[in-house]
Design brief:
Layout (H helix, E strand, L loop, with lengths): L2 H8 L12 H13 L6 E5 L6 E9 L5 E9 L6 E7 L13 H5 L3 E5 L35 H17 L4 E11 L1 H12 L3 E7 L6 H6 L8 H10 L6 H8 L14 E7 L7 H8 L8 E6 L10 H16 L1
Helix pairs in contact: 2-4, 4-5
Length: 325
């Protein structure tokens, strides 16, 4: 598919438009729960063997009492105030190698990479989930209501992490950025939504959006296969279909999009069958009018490494550093 065809087909698509009436109140209650936890965190030095950067295991106690782990890599020669890049990883994975954050630290950035609770990294998943707990994290807790959804806890971890970093005196709160791909792209956008201080976000083919439409789009061959799994084994006659999707609406990225105020750089593979482009446009088209945005199209690429996007991100951030000199 050519970029011009994708724009023509989906440029006006606004997603499912089923936002819960109490969406804002629901999330404000969660943010207050986090605010009541304070801004304490613990740093433990981590061996890095670098002449330009130092590393730490950063941990804090999140909602439900879970220990949440992040990698923190920062310049050895600390500036009075440093820009910060918050980095998020893909589904089931972890924060990745420490060494791949050194380049940004060498440029003067603090880099903080979250381990999503209960996935491949060191963060704990301590939530007690009734009924379905097998196959995927989107559906974890869905039968108990929105307060028990797995991603409610993850989104609140992200809010808490931003509050910790904004309170850090050595971080320049006017220079906060996010990055991620797939699940990480969704979480980078969630971060920008819950933290108005985020200046720019760099995302590749974000996950966690437009669940109703994702279910219609060859769901069993996409990242949303667990939706079909739930119906197949828990509700084969779809008698609870509406309640199921109404609960997932609370963690649908499209409804957070209007909260984003910073600039968004969005890379999309038009051959992506894992996170279908239509579900991505549902979010992109609902970004706030206050948010500057650009979409970079990769017609021959799917859910995979997208060349040149990393260079684009680095160039944008290099321009920021030059402005500060």
């Amino acid at each position: 598919m050519y970029a011009i065809d994708a724009k023509k087909r989906w440029q006006n698509y606004q997603g499912s438009q089923r936002k819960p009436a109490d969406f804002e109140a629901f999330w404000q209650a969660g943010f207050q729960e986090v605010d009541d936890l304070g801004t304490d965190y613990h740093l433990e030095p981590h061996p890095l063997n670098s002449s330009v950067a130092e590393a730490f295991d950063l941990t804090f106690t999140g909602v439900q009492g879970a220990t949440v782990h992040c990698q923190l890599i920062r310049p050895k020669r600390l500036q009075k105030k440093s820009p910060l890049l918050l980095q998020f990883h893909g589904y089931h994975s972890d924060a990745g190698d420490w060494s791949d954050k050194v380049a940004m630290a060498a440029e003067g950035f603090w880099v903080v990479a979250l381990d999503v609770r209960g996935q491949g990294g060191l963060s704990e998943d301590v939530g007690l989930t009734t009924k379905t707990s097998l196959k995927g994290h989107i559906i974890r807790g869905v039968e108990s209501g929105p307060n028990d959804l797995f991603y409610r806890s993850v989104f609140l971890d992200i809010y808490q992490l931003t509050r910790l970093m904004v309170a850090e005196p050595q971080v320049d709160t006017s220079q906060l950025y996010t990055y991620g791909a797939s699940q990480g792209g969704a979480l980078a956008l969630i971060c920008a939504a819950v933290a108005p201080e985020i200046k720019e976000s760099f995302v590749c083919y974000p996950f966690l959006s437009d669940y109703r439409e994702a279910y219609r789009l060859d769901v069993e061959n996409s990242a949303y296969e667990e939706l079909a799994y739930w119906f197949r084994f828990k509700d084969p006659l779809h008698q609870r279909e509406e309640a199921f999707f109404e609960t997932l609406d609370y963690i649908d990225l499209q409804y957070f999009a209007p909260w984003i105020k910073g600039k968004v750089h969005w890379a999309i593979g038009l051959a992506d069958t894992v996170c279908p482009p239509k579900t991505q446009f549902a979010v992109y088209n609902q970004l706030s009018s206050a948010a500057d945005k650009e979409m970079l199209f990769y017609p021959e690429y799917g859910h995979e490494y997208l060349p040149k996007f990393g260079d684009h991100m680095r160039q944008c951030l290099a321009d920021v550093l030059r402005e500060k000199e």
